[in-house]
């Protein structure tokens, strides 16, 4: 399985007066615009995936919707991607889709960082993985999604992704 781990784009800072329910906290206008450009870079590298699982929190869900607008499938809510869930719960959700060739997950820090570490090393804290808001990690999982079963293919920042979308397509003939 190819696993693409996407951290939600830049959202508003926590504010209990504006968003007493933190799950409703949205992306900023600038965060949304910057991620639209980053999403074009993502789709340039990964034109399609089979499944997108997303935290139902507004900021993650909107990030997944922006990827959908670029050509990925509509997101499917996955509560295990909400903040506070341990990585073994996310791996359990991924196991439900073990036959799928490529899956993208959209969620939050620190859960996604812990998930990547857990899949790479079997320990949620042993690999110091930092995914920037709007960034993406590509993991290759051999067989069933188990702790320590992944290998890191790449980790890209949103700045790199925005650069990719602004470059003209390369001519494969050289």
TrEMBL record:
Q: Which SMART domains match?
A: PGAM
Q: Which organism is it from?
A: uncultured Rubrobacteraceae bacterium
Q: Which InterPro entries match?
A: His_Pase_superF_clade-1, His_PPase_superfam
Gene3D superfamilies from the entry? Answer: Phosphoglycerate mutase-like
Q: Which CDD domains match?
A: HP_PGM_like
- Domain of life assignment: Bacteria
Which taxonomic lineage does the organism of this UniProt entry have? Bacteria, Bacillati, Actinomycetota, Rubrobacteria, Rubrobacterales
Q: What is this protein called?
A: Phosphohistidine phosphatase SixA
Q: Please report a single Pfam family linked to this protein.
A: His_Phos_1
Q: Which residues form the signal peptide?
A: none
């Amino acid at each position: 399985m190819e696993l693409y781990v996407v951290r939600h784009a830049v959202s508003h800072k926590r504010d209990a007066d504006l968003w007493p329910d933190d799950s409703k906290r949205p992306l900023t206008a600038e965060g949304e615009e910057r991620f639209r450009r980053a999403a074009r870079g993502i789709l340039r590298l990964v034109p399609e995936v089979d499944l997108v699982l997303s935290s139902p929190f507004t900021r993650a869900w909107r990030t997944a919707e922006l990827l959908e607008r670029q050509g990925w499938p509509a997101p499917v809510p996955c509560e295990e991607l909400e903040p506070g869930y341990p990585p073994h719960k996310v791996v359990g959700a991924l196991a439900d889709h073990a036959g799928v060739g490529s899956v993208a997950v959209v969620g939050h820090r620190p859960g996604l960082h812990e998930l990547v570490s857990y899949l790479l090393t079997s320990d949620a804290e042993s690999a110091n993985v930092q995914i920037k808001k709007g960034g993406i990690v590509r993991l290759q999982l051999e067989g069933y999604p188990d702790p320590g079963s992944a290998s890191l293919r790449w980790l890209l920042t949103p700045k790199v992704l925005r650069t990719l979308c602004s470059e003209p397509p390369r001519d494969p003939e050289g």
